[in-house]
Every structure is written in structure tokens, then in C-alpha cells.
Amino acid sequence: MAMEIERKFLLDRTPDELAAEKVFVRQSQQVIEQTYLALDEQQEIRVRRLVDADTGEVEYTHTFKQGNGLSREEVEYSITESIYEQLFKASGAVPLTKTRTTGEWNGFTVELDRYDQLNLTVAEVEFDSIETAQSFIPPDWFGEDISSKREYSNKKVWRDLQSRK
Q1: pLDDT category of residue 165 using cuts at 50, 70 and 90
Q2: Catalytic-residue membership of 36
Q3: Which of 11, 12, 41, 120 could pair covalently with 115 via S-S, beta carbons 3.0-4.6 A apart?
């Protein structure tokens, strides 16, 4: 299994505002719809529909993650639209939707996620090692480090969304 090592930060500005301030250079943008098929405190299985905002190209993925916090195990692979639709419909769930703007800051790839169903924007930065992640000094505009705060995890946000339907 591959390791995902990332840090997440709470933002108080939108990706468009950050781009206008020239602190973030946009490279691409995707609209993401994700639904969890199974989850508990340590594991999650989800499906995603990703639409490239520039080209309209659509991709579907199935992901298994294990662990919490800074470093997690992850397996992700492409699936067909038909498999996605079957799994999504079988779940009967409301998908979590967000717009992901990917760009560059100071040599790092940064993903800014703006959630549609709530007033939340986060920045994510992935790293090659735990040491690099721990030594990373974020810019002031990143805001609070929420890497270990479970209330900001996608699965928690999705679970809260289901309770509102």
C-alpha cells in the first residue's frame, strides 16, 4: 500500500481571493463528488467522480484509506462510470462536493478544497516523507494546522452531511 503523507490547513480566503493576491498560482481545477461506502475510525472506502473544470473530462476512482492524521495508507484506482453509478446509487447517500484548485506555492503543490455544502476551505500539501512534512513551514495565509483534527476530515464532514438529509 502507498503512504499518503499530508498536512491540512484551515483557510479564511477562497482560492480566487488567494490567486488575486498573487500568493497562489492556479494550475488546474476539479469539481469532486465523493461518497463513502464504508468507514470507521481507522478505515474508509469511498468513490469519487472528478470533473476537470477546464476540459470537462470526467474520471471515476475507488479509494481505500487506513489510518488518521499526518500519514495514512492509501490505495486508489480508476473505475468505470457504470461501476461508480452502481456503488453511488447503492449507498443511498448524499455526496460531499467540493471544488479542488491545484496550484503551486514556493515549490510545493498545494490543493485548495472549497466545500459546497458548508463554509469551509482547506489547503492540503502532500510530502514524500514524514520528516519533510514535519519541517514544513507554512505561509501565514494557510491558517490553522488541522492535520490532526478529526472534525475537519472528509469522512467526518461527509458523515455530518448525511445526518442533515
Answers
A1: low
A2: yes
A3: 120
